Amino acid sequence: MTDTMTDILLLTIGSFGILIALTFLGEVLRAREEPGFVNPVLDTYMTRVQSWWGMVAFVGFALLMGRIGVMVLFAFASFAALREFLTLTTKAQADHLSLALAFFAVLPLQYVFVGLGWDGLYAIFIPVYAFLLLPIVSALRGNPDRFLMRVAETQWALMIAVFCVSHVPALMNLDIAGYGDRSLLLVAFLVMVVQFGDLLEYFFGRRIGRTKIAPGLSPKTWEGVLCAVGCAMLVGALLNWITPFGVIGAMAMAGTASLVGMFGSLVVASIKRDRGVKDWSHLIPGQGGFVDQLDSVIFAAPIFYHLTKYFYT
Amino acid sequence: MKFLRQFAARIFGQSIRIFARAITAVRADWKGIEPVPRQRVYFANHTSNADMPMIWSVLPPAMRRTVRPVAAADYWLKNKVRAFVGPEVFNCVLVDRRPEVKDKPMDKIIAALDEGSSLIIFPEGNRNMTDDPLLPFKAGLYNMGVARPEVDLVPTWVANLTEIMPKGEIIPLPLICTVTFGEPIHVREGESKDDFLRRASDALLAQRPEVRT
Questions:
Q1: Do A138 and A257 belong together in one domain?
Q2: Residue finishing a domain among A141, A173, A205
Q3: Do the Cβ atoms of A96 and B169 come within 8 Å?
Q4: Contact list, A161 vs chain B (CB under 8 Å)
Q5: How many beta carbons lie within 10 A of that of residue A76, not counting itself?
Q6: Do A3 and A106 share a domain, yes or no?
Q7: Residue ranges of the Phospholipid/glycerol acyltransferase domain (chain B) (predicted)?
Q8: What is the pLDDT of residues A76-119, one digit of tens each?
Q9: Cβ neighbours for A88, distance < 8 A, ≥ 6 positions apart
């Protein structure tokens, strides 16, 4: 077994340890409740923890499978996210072919390019080629009604659900001196730091949150976000042994990723508010949809990728 | 042989269900009823041939076993594959809408209700190819409600299928399909056919999920 695999196994076991503690905590709280009384907050918490079990198992398994496992997992996440996004966007029958191309050509091609490591192409394939070609396909069907809305929303869906998500597995392509095949661990680092930050933001926001960042949009508070970014930096420091960043670098990268991620989820919340929905879908019990779960990772991934590329390769 | 056919029908039914879930992530929204086995008539909007399989796919197993879609015999008996899928996989109540037939549709429907089956029906009669959300309802739903007043009539809205597969397109889009079940309605005492059908149509429209675009 290689060092990388041992480390992944350690991280997975560590995450399961945390989940066991969280599950235990929930069960203790439940046991202390009056019989017959149902606490909705506790119920939501338990459903979420159960979903977390599934997610840690999936991500851990994918990482243990190596490159292919991570590619397949995130390609599937992209598909699910794109499906959620395009269900809510403005579209007409004239867009049918361009939407079909988005699902069945653009998405798989992007992951093929990431898989082949063609970093010049996967960085521009959606922002340039899909951006220019899909509106042409829509225009050929000759329906100008709300045209700009339709093509802009489709492009947004592709950027968020495919381009950004694919930058998580793209981290494996970064060629960092002295880091070798361990770039797989960057995927684990990014996902863990950002998701921990989210979890703690929720916790601190409830406990000490006072000043809302964007009232009427999201319950996120400045206090919650600051505490969570601080904690994410701490987690980053603790996990610095799996990164090429060193302690200070790991803290800076973790803090940046977590901060961008939290503001990213504000953007995603705005889109949901505009469409009048609470969640993107109901595929993950207690969490909503894939976009709800991944929103912060989605925003953090390309930034994390490019910062790492700029400073460490 | 009969056993083999039944087995094949079950496998085929499961495949349809898994396919629908994998592509459209179809899900049920139990807004007005609980997902419990109870005799009901699910009346739904009809925009695509996939409507009925979608409703069928979201029902839990115990409900799926007792539900029978009411469907046109001319469609489902056209070839051997359909004649297997319609009557044996979905256990359809096949009705012949031609006026000259002896075997009246309503008799077969009432007979199915008296056997304890639940039904899926499309009260618009035909697939809705217009821009209106619903076509005017045919009298069948009213007649069922009068003949068997104790049965719950459940408005069932199938959302997004027109975008998943607009008419004239070949490739289905994998968008999320939602099936919303509303509160059951019954024919009120002394209610006229037209009043009831209007109320039923409104009840069905009320299940449409609100998405602003």
A1: no
A2: A173
A3: yes
A4: none
A5: 14
A6: no
A7: 40-161
A8: 999 999 999 999 999 999 999 999 999 999 999 999 999 999 99
A9: A271, A275, A277, A280, B211, B213
CATH superfamily, domain B2-205, is: Glycerol-3-phosphate (1)-acyltransferase (3.40.1130.10)
How far is it, in rounded angstroms, from Cα B200 to Cα B145?
A: 11
The reported pLDDT for the residue numbered A37 is 75
Q: In chain B, whose CA is at the least distance from the CA of A102?
A: B173
Instruction: Give the closest of A79, A276, A283 to B212, CB-based.
Output: A276
- Establish, for the pair of chains A and B, how many residue pairs have beta carbons separated by less than 8 Å: 43
At residue A82, the pLDDT reads 96
Nearest C-alpha of chain B: how many angstroms from A202?
A: 27
Question: Each residue of A241-258: pLDDT tens digit?
Answer: 999 999 999 999 999 999
pLDDT at residue A178 in the model: 81
- The residue with greater pLDDT, B64 or B213, is B64
User: What average pLDDT does this structure show over B121-134?
Assistant: 88
pTM above 0.90, yes or no: no
Q: Does residue B213 register a pLDDT over 70?
A: no
Shared-domain flag, residues A192 and A140: no
Ordered alpha helix ranges (H), A209-245: 222-238
Whether residue A154 contacts residue A103, with contact meaning beta carbons closer than 8 Å, is answered with no
Query: A101 and A29 in one domain?
Result: no
Q: Which residues of A touch B27 (CB under 8 A)?
A: 281-282
For residue A84, list chain B residues with Cβ-Cβ distance below 8 A: 176
With a cut of 80, say whether residue B95 has pLDDT above it.
Answer: yes
**B191: three-class secondary structure by DSSP:** coil
What distance in Å separates the CA atoms of residue B126 and residue B48, rounded to the nearest whole number? 10
Structural domain of A270: 175-313
What is the CA A28 to chain-centroid distance, rounded? 31
Over 70: is that where the pLDDT of A138 sits? yes
Nearest CA in chain B to A88: B211
d(CA B178, nearest CA chain A) in Å: 10
Q: What is the pLDDT of residue B212?
A: 64
Pick the residue with more confidence: A280 or A101? A101
Say whether both A220 and A299 belong to one domain: yes
Enter the DSSP assignment of B187: P
Give the integer Cα–Cα distance in Å for A71 and A168: 9
Residues A268 and A155 in one domain: no
Q: Based on the domain organization, do A299 and A216 belong to the same domain?
A: yes
**How confident is the model at residue A32, as a pLDDT?**
84
Considering the domain architecture, whether residues A32 and A153 belong to the same structural domain is answered as no
Last residue of a domain, one of A120, A145, A173: A173
